[in-house]
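Service request form, structural biology core

Requester: graduate student, group of Dr. S.
Request type: structure prediction, single chain
Budget code: on file
Notes: please return the result as structure tokens.

Sequence provided:
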Amino acid sequence: QRHGSVSGLLWEGPPGSARVELFTKHGCSLCETVKGTLSRLRAQVPHTLVQVDITDPDKVDIWDEYRFEIPVIHINGSYVSSSDDISESDPDDLLEILRQHASDETAVLSERS
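Core staff response, request fulfilled:
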């Protein structure tokens, strides 16, 4: 049975914050765990979170690539981790990844000024 898409913006961080894309699908319990962790980390490292449902009809290529790896995280358009990296990780691992990419984005914004 096909469920509705879970794609969409979950929250928006302040201007210049990292854009996190969580590749997921309905019923992915590990994805929900990662989403909860990202939510708790928002105060420490503000970021935008967008869910991308790999079962959406326009995501066939992504389904082929990620169906056995979700949750997959991209930050600022770059792949950073998958279930292989996340399943054994703790929140500190995601916090470090976010901090690294948030500082990269801040550096890019500073260079543009």
